[in-house]
Amino acid sequence: MTLKDFLRKRMEKGKMLKDAQEQVDISKKIEQRMKTPNERDLEDFIEKDRQKQIKQKLQQFRDKEKRDMFVGSLGDKTNIFKGHKNILGGKKLFPIKKGISGGNMYFK
Q1: Is residue 104 part of a domain?
Q2: What's the confidence (pLDDT) of residue 52?
Q3: Assigned domain for 13 exists
Q4: Which helix (H) or strand (E) holds 28?
């Protein structure tokens, strides 16, 4: 198969797809013209409502993904600090010892 044959086949496929799309568009236009204006308006409202519901559902999924991304499975695990003694409330770990200078070496 030469390059010319390949390009010719691609152009033929593209032309066939374009023709098929034109046929679909024409049939849709004919269907729309056969309907009354009230039917067209009703279909528009139904489609808008459907799109709104899809958008809300999609937003719910996105919000859930964000929550799961930030929270993850941490909420299911037990508290690792539970059962340990309070470090901050206990006695001082490093008590200040008064040295030769009397304790406060910066302010005398």
Answers
A1: no
A2: 97
A3: no
A4: helix 3-34
Within a domain: residue 63? yes
17 contacts 25 by C-beta, under 8 angstroms: no
Angle, CA of 96, 97 and 103, to the nearest 5°: 90
Q: Which residues of the chain have pLDDT under 70?
A: 71-108
- Collect all residues with Cβ–Cβ distance below 8 Å to 84 and sequence separation of at least 6: none
Range(s) of the domain holding residue 51: 36-69
> Tokens in use for 8?
């010719």
Tell me the pTM: 0.45
Q: How many domains does the chain have?
A: 1
Euclidean distance between CA atoms 25 and 50, whole angstroms: 22
Q: What is the largest CA-CA distance in the chain?
A: 104
Q: Is 82 left (phi over 0), alpha (psi -120 to 50) or beta?
A: beta
CB environment 60-77: b (16+ within 10 A), e (fewer)? eeeeeeeeeeeeeeeeee
Nearest to 9 by CA among 52, 17, 29: 17
